[in-house]
Write a structure and sequence with these properties.
Strand order of the largest sheet: 7-8-9-10-11-1-2-3-4-5-6-12
CATH architecture of the largest domain: Clam
Number of helices: 7
Strand content: 35-45%
Distance between the termini: 84 Å
CATH topology of the largest domain: outer membrane lipoprotein receptor (LolB), chain A
Radius of gyration: 23 Å
Number of domains: 2
Helix content: 10-25%
C-alpha cells in the first residue's frame, strides 16, 4: 500500500512539473513581454564570419517613454538610441539623424518587433533544454523555417522573464551564420539613473525616411516576381543612394521579421552582352548585385540565404 501511495505521489509531482513548464508558443509571447516591460542591461558579443563585436544593450522605461540604447564597446563608436518608435542613428562622429516609426537595426531587434503570431505562421517552434547564458538560467527555443528560403533561429530566454539572452541564426543545414551571445546581464531599478540619463539626451529632430532620402514617387516600370512565403512589398519609390547622383527604383519587402531591399538601375556603360554578378556576405545579410545583359543592374540586400535573393532578382520584370 505504501508503494502504491508513493507511486501516485511521484506521478502527481511529474504531472505538476510538466504542466508548470510553458509551451514553446507561450515562451514567444513571454519573450515579447519580458523585453518590453523590464529595465535591464545586457553586454553581448555579436559574432559574424571572423568578426567579433562587443555591444552593450540598455533597455527600460522613463515615465511613459520606452528607452532602448545600443553601444559598441570597442573599435569605431556606433550608437543607437530609441525613444518609443523614434530611433537616433549615430553611426559616425560627424553624422547622426533621427527616424520616425523605426527600430534599431539587426535581427535581434527585428525579433523583438515581430509578433509571435507571425513567427508561428512561418516557423515550427520547439522548446528545447535549459542552459546558462550570461550567468542566468535560460530556456532555449528552436524556430525552424518551414521552407529553405529563410534562415532558422535558436533563442535562449531568461527563465523568469523571457528576456532574450542569446540569438543564433542558422542556415538550412544547421550551420551558424550569425550570433548574438550575452555575456553579462543585470536588471536595472525602476528609477535607474542610466535610463534617466539616456532619456534626457538631446537628439536631432525626427524625420521620415522619405525626408532623409528625398524620395520620388515610384516609376511603376518594374514588376516583382517570386518572393519567399509571407513576403510582400511594403513600400516603393525612387531615391538616390548616399554618395550617388543616380535615381534608382526601390522596393522594400518584408514578412514582419526580415526586410529585403531591392534596387534597380541602368548601367551607364554599354552592356557587356553577358550577365555578371557580385556577391557579399555579412553574417546573415546577403548582398547580390546582378548586371543583366540588357543593361539593368539589380541589387538585392537582406537577411536571407543567397539563393533566395537570386530568385527574387531573376524574376523581376519590366512592366509592359
Amino acid at each position: 500500500m505504501h508503494r502504491i501511495v508513493l507511486a501516485f505521489l511521484l506521478i502527481g509531482s511529474l504531472v505538476t512539473k510538466a504542466s508548470a513548464e510553458p509551451s514553446a508558443e507561450a515562451l514567444l509571447f513571454q519573450m515579447q513581454r519580458g523585453y518590453h516591460h523590464n529595465n535591464f542591461e545586457l553586454v553581448m558579443v555579436h559574432i559574424l564570419q571572423n568578426n567579433i563585436e562587443p555591444l552593450r544593450l540598455t533597455h527600460g522605461w522613463n515615465n511613459r517613454t520606452e528607452i532602448t540604447h545600443l553601444l559598441t564597446l570597442s573599435g569605431r563608436l556606433v550608437e543607437y538610441l530609441g525613444k518609443n518608435k523614434q530611433v537616433t542613428f549615430a553611426e559616425s562622429a560627424q553624422v547622426s539623424y533621427t527616424l520616425q516609426e523605426s527600430r534599431l537595426p539587426g535581427l535581434w531587434f527585428a525579433m523583438m518587433s515581430c509578433s509571435p503570431e507571425t513567427l508561428l505562421k512561418f516557423y515550427d517552434v520547439v522548446s528545447m533544454g535549459k542552459s546558462r547564458i550570461a550567468g542566468q538560467v535560460a530556456q532555449s527555443v528552436r524556430l525552424t523555417a518551414k521552407d529553405d528560403s529563410k534562415y532558422s533561429f535558436i533563442l535562449w530566454l531568461e527563465q523568469k522573464t523571457g528576456i532574450l539572452l542569446r540569438l543564433d541564426v542558422n542556415d538550412a543545414q544547421g550551420n551558424p551564420v550569425e550570433q548574438y551571445l550575452g555575456i553579462d546581464f543585470r536588471f536595472l531599478s525602476e528609477h535607474s539613473s542610466n535610463i534617466k540619463t539616456l532619456a534626457a539626451m538631446n537628439v536631432p529632430p525626427a524625420e521620415t525616411s522619405r525626408d532623409i532620402y528625398r524620395a520620388e514617387p515610384p516609376s511603376h516600370q518594374w514588376k516583382l516576381g517570386w518572393v519567399p512565403p509571407g513576403f510582400a512589398a511594403k513600400s516603393s519609390d525612387q531615391h538616390k543612394l548616399i554618395g550617388s547622383d543616380e535615381l534608382m527604383d526601390y522596393f522594400m519587402l518584408s514578412d514582419g521579421l526580415v526586410d529585403v531591399s531591392v534596387y534597380i538601375s541602368r548601367a551607364n556603360a554599354k552592356p557587356a552582352g553577358r550577365e555578371t554578378e557580385q556577391i557579399a556576405m555579412h553574417g546573415a545579410t546577403s548582398i547580390l548585385s546582378v548586371n543583366r545583359n540588357d543593361g539593368v543592374i539589380l541589387t538585392v540586400v537582406g537577411e536571407l540565404p543567397l539563393p533566395s535573393l537570386r530568385q527574387i532578382a531573376e524574376t523581376i520584370e519590366m512592366n509592359r
